From TrEMBL:
TM region(s), chain numbering: 484-503
Keyword Magnesium: no
Protein name: Lipase 3-like isoform X2
Domain (Partial AB-hydrolase lipase): residue spans on this chain: 292-346
Length: 698
């Protein structure tokens, strides 16, 4: 009889699973199909999606071919690795190397596992309130079901736990308990560690939740039927449960919550079945990798430097170090971005790795403005933390990071090359090139001009600006509407909306998972991509891919302050590249010693080194005409400036694979050549002789 009941329940359970899975899959297929139909009738989709390949909207095994500068073995890591889908059966990835010279120069890279805890680990306590209330309400709704299911499950657990296990080793008692529960037999594949993917999408989470729910329901009915057919065993189990101590119950509860699943760690030389601890209430399986994780997983060296600005903000300056190199590059991201943008394309397509492979010491800057609100004042309010404009990016953040770079490089070169004097006749022992994108370009221009006005050294030898912000009057209707909205409602928004970001961990997790679904279902991803491009004036950047970047994760994300957006609206309205207008002549006098903000475009004559401007014809966020405005003003001011324009959209400069763009940027970077040691030593000797002669004369 018991065998008949077990067979009926097993067949019913599998039938319910099949029907449920197929229903969910059909709903998803319907959504994907409707998205494909909508995408087919939307105008302009061909232009928006023409630059996308299948592997960009749907991860596959294929990637772009090696760029020209890596074909001769310049790179030590010229094996491009793609993120693979969760359905992949690949058990390992081959990080082959064509040239191991750099491995001899640098020690082994730090383990990426330790970098799972980011330096931005202090969260806003208010972010957890909404999630806490949701959990509280759900727990009360599900309390009756928990009560009904909990007693039979616990009785069954105790009944099977007390059965003789003479042939079972002592160390495997947890496996015998797990076998008796049969709760995760069909879930094992979901918990096996996979190196090929880092997160599940919402659809995959629904599959997993449905399977857990079906397993729990049928496990309840299975045990209920077993108890009814064996009443003596029920009474015996009930007696043992009631007579057991409280501590034993707690242990039992812990064992039911934390179980061990046989799993294979993929990618090992000799994979073997190991015990993998699994917590049903644990990780939400989102991709929370940091820039450090990406760099070290690809085998490059990494260093993190914490910088404190003059107004108390903590910044993270990241580095791919070549300590003895006298060629240095500093990369600065734009709005709602981070250093992740410079390494997100892997070894082949990322500017940071390309610069390192060309012999540069690479520094990656990060602006202030994280949800975690890193500041020397641990109790700083949200209003106070987000009270900054582009002014602070250009006059606080960049100066702090560049001075830290100067401090680090001069100290290291003193040790590795003691024959070089620190600054012989005003010459730095290294050459610094800056590559900046979008808002980072505007902040860098502001930094150069304010440093020159204050007669302070800017340390730069060359600057490459990729679609720099500053001039915005030639834009689409969406940005014009944003301009007037922020200018009219500025007094109200400044008090009520200090910044723009996803406020709670739950919704950040949801975005992270939806980004995975957009990749799994290309029609849905293409529809979202097209709609976002419509909103942003037809810009064909890979907006769907950007949403999947791991710096938008449930723990933290970059935000943008209200004053930064207000500052951009001011510049667009005034048709000038100028500093922040504080709203009154007296307030501006206190800051600028002038009733009007400083017009940066009129001070381009202060730039005393070469500048390379790059614009994209498909860029509808900062159009080529606005980059040409920078070029014209610089040319009229006598700056050594070049202008290049190609078929790129706004995010293509950092996020998408474009060999021509990287080749051009690398060619401009390689024009930065540090002075030869002999020249520096000769200048140093001449300077010393002059000082000696002067002292004798005195």
């Amino acid at each position: 009889m018991q065998r008949l009941v077990d067979t009926v329940l097993a067949v019913t359970k599998e039938s319910v699973k099949t029907v449920t899975y197929e229903s969910l899959n059909n709903i998803v297929r319907l959504i994907n199909g409707v998205s494909a139909l909508l995408l087919a009738i939307l105008p302009g989709k061909a232009k928006i999606l023409e630059g996308f390949h299948g592997w960009e909207l749907r991860p596959t095994f294929r990637g772009p071919r090696f760029p020209r500068w890596m074909e001769n073995g310049v790179s030590s890591f010229n094996k491009f690795i793609h993120e693979l889908s969760i359905d992949s059966d690949t058990s390992s990835m081959d990080y082959s190397s064509a040239d191991e010279d750099s491995d001899a120069l640098y020690p082994a890279s730090p383990s990426s596992q330790g970098s799972r805890i980011s330096y931005t680990s202090t969260f806003n306590q208010d972010d957890g309130y909404l999630g806490g209330w949701i959990k509280y309400l759900i727990s009360w709704i599900l309390f009756p079901m928990k009560l009904l299911l909990g007693l039979p499950l616990r009785l069954g657990h105790l009944f099977y736990a007390r059965r003789p296990t003479a042939h079972s080793p002592r160390g495997n008692h947890r496996f015998s308990q797990l076998d008796s529960l049969k709760k995760v037999h069909n879930l094992k594949d979901h918990f096996i560690l996979r190196t090929t993917d880092r997160r599940r999408g919402v659809v995959e989470d629904l599959h997993l939740a449905i399977e857990i729910f079906i397993e729990a329901i049928f496990d309840f009915f299975h045990k209920a039927a077993h108890f009814l057919l064996s009443p003596s065993k029920v009474l015996k189990a009930l007696h043992s449960w009631l007579s057991s101590p409280v501590s034993g119950n707690e242990d039992t509860c812990d064992e039911m919550t934390d179980t061990y699943v046989p799993a294979t760690t993929l990618g090992e030389d000799h994979p073997s079945s190991t015990e993998q601890k699994t917590n049903f209430h644990g990780s939400m399986n989102t991709d929370a990798r940091t820039c450090r994780d990406v760099i070290t997983e690809l085998g490059y060296p990494y260093e993190a430097i914490r910088v404190i600005t003059s107004d108390g903000y903590f910044l993270l300056l990241e580095r791919i170090p070549r300590r003895d190199s006298r060629k240095v590059v500093y990369l600065q991201h734009g709005v709602l971005d981070s250093s992740m943008g410079w390494v997100s394309n892997g070894v082949v397509g990322s500017p940071a790795f390309a610069a390192y492979d060309q012999g540069f010491d690479v520094f990656l800057g990060n602006f202030r403005g994280l949800v975690s609100r890193e500041h020397v004042d641990k109790n700083i309010s949200s209003q106070k933390y987000w009270r900054y404009s582009i002014n602070e990016h250009g006059t606080k953040d960049i100066p702090a990071m560049i001075e830290k770079i100067h401090e680090v490089k001069t100290a290291e070169l003193k040790i590795s090359q003691p024959d070089l004097d620190e600054e012989a006749n005003g010459e730095q022992p290294y050459k610094l090139c800056a590559i900046c994108h979008s808002l980072g370009g505007a902040a860098m221009l502001m930094y150069i001009i304010t440093q020159r006005i204050e007669e302070k050294p800017h340390r730069l030898s060359r600057m490459i600006l990729l679609s720099p912000a500053g001039f915005h009057h030639d834009s689409n209707i969406f940005f014009t509407a944003i301009e007037y909205l922020f200018l009219l409602l500025a007094p109200i928004l400044a008090c009520t909306v200090p910044a723009f970001y996803i406020p709670t961990r739950f919704f950040r997790m949801l975005l992270n998972k939806l980004a995975r679904d957009f990749h799994n279902y290309p029609a849905v991803g293409g529809l979202v991509q097209t709609i976002m491009s419509y909103v942003l004036g037809g810009d064909s950047s890979n907006w769907v891919g950007v949403l999947g970047l791991p710096h938008y994760n449930m723990n933290d994300m970059p935000g943008v302050s209200f004053q930064v957006v207000h500052h951009l609206a001011q510049m667009k309205h005034a048709r000038k590249f100028r500093m922040y207008d504080y709203g009154s002549a007296s307030a501006n006098m206190d800051v600028y010693k002038s009733p009007e903000p400083l017009d940066l475009g009129k001070h381009y004559f202060l730039i005393n080194f070469p500048v390379d401007l790059v614009a994209g014809r498909k860029d509808n966020v900062i159009r080529p005409s606005m980059v040409k405005k920078h070029y014209k003003l610089m040319k009229d001011a006598g700056v050594d400036v070049s202008y290049n324009e190609s078929e790129y959209a706004h995010l293509d400069f950092t996020f998408s694979h474009h060999e021509e763009l990287l080749a051009y940027v690398m060619s401009r970077m390689l024009l930065v050549k540090p002075a030869q040691k002999q020249q520096l030593n000769q200048k140093s000797l001449r300077l010393k002789s002059r000082n000696t002669a002067g002292s004798k004369t005195n």
